[in-house]
């Protein structure tokens, strides 16, 4: 089957689909990943075909927590994405796998072309009484309040996609239909959505409709035979397991301040550290600190004492799979949600909000997470649970079911 995976967003919104795509390709499918040019190299490295999506998905003002600014950025991104989204779908495409960011546009393509579609989401997006929506609230409002907030979050998404969807439907010669009406149509049809995260982090809510499944994490593709950089290997072997500090694509332009905080905290706690440069541009020198660039989490994390991270969905899952405890510093978006889930499991300290981060607070959290064994035990327990899940295999079964039904 010729499958197109459409994914847009930051690196963490794209990388998991390289692992999913590589697994589907191994099972005999012809897989193409549509993403923005910034991540074409990830797709090619996984041995998959690449197709370009419009829009600049690199985080603009990644340190911002102002909701109005974030909404403006998101609206501009969606407008750019909608302008050329249809061009990514070729005439021979037989199945569309749509991320949470591309589904509100992809639905209109499935209507126009007749190509079946399947949701492949990295976050829980459907309303539930079990927890508040991942991107708009950080504390439970009770079952009724959580569901109400979940519906409100969906309406906000509908507003973001309104103009882009209208323009796309016009280009596809479809009659007008609002994003909210399209979403309700998909829900009534029980449109299937696979969620690529672990039930160790988020058990499937009992009040979700039948078509919503939690299948396990899709891990970014990497070659397990590829060694870590020699300088990193030397550093790992030169002393006790270090702590990794990284903020992914977040906190652009804040690298000098964050690097200073990280180094002071590590030395205050008596720990060796690795700074992952990322979007913030972290950097420091010293016998007890090493700066690295892009390194596969699967190869590095099991050799660490702890991870300090922004609580992105992928990094949160990677630390947990490695059985390594964490200190989370959520910045924006769904990061407070994942930080809260890790803390609830006991695998991380209480989150330190990004604006409140200081060397003293970070050092205190590091001392606790490294020296109190309960955090490592909780992470190891979750890791054993995650080892029983195979997100790619479950996705493959769902695709085969969909093909059989067609």
Structure description:
The chain has 406 residues and is α/β, with parallel strands linked by helices. The chain has two domains: 2-217 and 389-405, 3-Layer(aba) Sandwich (Rossmann fold), CATH 3.40.50.2000; 230-386, 3-Layer(aba) Sandwich (Rossmann fold), CATH 3.40.50.2000. Helix content is 44%, strand content 12%. The chain has helices spanning 11-26, 40-45, 67-84, 103-113, 142-171, 179-188, 230-237, 255-269, 297-300, 313-321, 335-345, 359-371, 373-386, 391-405, and strands at residues 2-6, 30-35, 49-52, 95-98, 117-121, 193-195, 212-214, 243-245, 273-276, 289-292, 306-309, 326-328. The strands form two sheets. The chain has a seven-stranded parallel beta sheet with strand order 3-2-1-4-5-6-7, sandwiched between helices. It is globular, with a radius of gyration of 21 Å. It starts with a strand and ends with a helix.
Features:
406 residues; alpha/beta; Rossmann fold; 2 domains; seven-stranded parallel beta sheet; 12 strands; 12% strand; globular
List the uncertain runs. Answer: 59-65
Quaternary structure of the protein: single chain
CATH class of the largest domain: Alpha Beta
**Tally of distinct domains:** 2
CATH topology of the largest domain: Rossmann fold
Total beta strands:
12
**CATH superfamily name of the largest domain?**
Glycogen Phosphorylase B
Give the radius of gyration.
21 Å
Mean pLDDT across all amino acids = 91
SSE topology string: EHEHEHEHEHHEEHEHEEHEHEHHHH
The secondary-structure class comes to alpha/beta
Strand line-up in the sheet with most strands: 3-2-1-4-5-6-7
Strand composition percent: 5-15%
Percentage of residues assigned to helices = 40-55%
The CATH architecture of the largest domain can be given as 3-Layer(aba) Sandwich
Distance between the termini: 13 Å
Tally of helical segments: 14
Tertiary shape:
globular
What characterizes the major β-sheet?
7 strands, parallel
